[in-house]
Amino acid sequence: MAAESYQQSSAAKPDVLPKPGDAILDLGCGTGELSAYLAELVGSKGYVIVVDPDLSRLQLAKEAHRHVKNLSFIEGNSDKFEGMGSETFDIIFSNYILHWIPEKSRAFRNMFDSLRVGGKIAAQYSDIIPPFMATSYEVLNPERFEQLNNMFHPVKRDDVDLLCVTAGFDVMKSYSPKYTRDFYPSVESLLQWLVGTTHGVFDLHLVTQERIELLVEKFGNPPFDFTTNSFDCRLVAVKPKSQTL
Ligand SMILES: C[S@@+](CC[C@H](N)C(=O)[O-])C[C@H]1O[C@@H](n2cnc3c(N)ncnc32)[C@H](O)[C@@H]1O
């Protein structure tokens, strides 16, 4: 079952869960595990629209969850997505995508315009580039260091809250969990993750044995456990009834 596999694979459970019959948008699907979990929760009377700008990821997610009937995978992004402006969604999930979006105020406005009154956004994001990632880029891919760093647009939690309120939302919850767990059993698993999370911009051809040894000098021998004080943030906000004077 999708719910079970999501629960087993994910350390981070959503702060808000949909109910049967809900209309859900999952903005930025990755492998689609969360999307399939949500589809199971909304049941046959509800639906989940999943958008992602990365066509190869979208295709992989679609293939992995093709048996799920109430799940639609559609190319899109925070500026242009199926149902944008429709005021129909009950919840919009954005799981680890805010730090990918350079222009966040527009993204919040688009989400606001797509939710029904009383609808919510549930977001998880990083407010910095995790130090172990920055070090890995610097040591293993110095030629691409700038490009890799520039892919991410992390913003501090207070500023995200402000963007959210400016778009019209009431913030219900905004917090950082105590710690962020990042664990890699081997050098290969870390490399795989660096390639995957940067959509292939991190280049394995640039990773020499000498560079790996330098990294191990800095991190110690694998397994690499980068569990640390949290740089993850979580946000739940609601679209309020319009204020009449
Ligand atoms: C770290 S993955 C998270 C995937 C998934 N939500 C999860 O929790 O596993 C980030 C995803 O956001 C997508 N993304 C990047 N920019 C985006 C944007 N402007 N709007 C929507 N999705 C975006 C990427 O293609 C990628 O699939």
TrEMBL record:
InterPro entries: Methyltranfer_dom, SAM-dependent_MTases_sf. Residues 19-151 form the Methyltransferase domain. SUPFAM superfamilies: S-adenosyl-L-methionine-dependent methyltransferases. Gene3D superfamilies: Vaccinia Virus protein VP39. PANTHER family: TRANS-ACONITATE 2-METHYLTRANSFERASE, TRANS-ACONITATE 2-METHYLTRANSFERASE-RELATED. This is Methyltransferase domain-containing protein. It comes from Pocillopora damicornis (Cauliflower coral).
